[in-house]
Amino acid sequence: MIRGKHKPGFTPHVDCGDNVIIINADKIKLTGKKRTDKVYVRYTGYPGGQRFATPRIWLDKFPTRVVEHAVRGMLPKNRLGRQLFKNLYVYAGSEHPHAAQQPKEVKIS
Fold first, then answer.
1. By three-state DSSP, how is residue 54 classified?
2. What DSSP character marks residue 25?
3. pLDDT by residue (tens digit) across 37-94?
4. What is the CATH number of the domain that holds 74?
5. Is residue 88 part of a domain?
6. Is 81 buried (19+), middle (13-18) or exposed (0-12) by CB count in 10 A?
7. How many domains are there within the chain?
8. Domain contains 6
9. Which of 50, 25, 28, 48 is nearest to 39 (CA)?
10. What are residue 52's DSSP bridge partners?
């Protein structure tokens, strides 16, 4: 939806201008043992600075980060992907401050 592939005028190198609001990010379900066995790796830049985290840790501290990380991995790894990521808004609860923009609800099954 962020890329605009559902639009008839889709062009791969253009930001189609769609913003996506994801609510209830804290209620996501992970199948199998992904909650404890999947590992997110980051590097601080210092020697010995490799840090590891699991989705269980991220969901406890930052419930929106799991969804953001997943969506960022699906976007292009270039300037366009960084611009498209700014069109994503993720909220842990069901409340969001975008009611004035009259967003349309899309059910994903």
1. coil
2. G
3. 999 999 999 999 999 999 999 999 999 999 999 999 999 999 999 999 999 999 999 9
4. 3.90.1180.10
5. yes
6. middle
7. 1
8. no
9. 50
10. 41
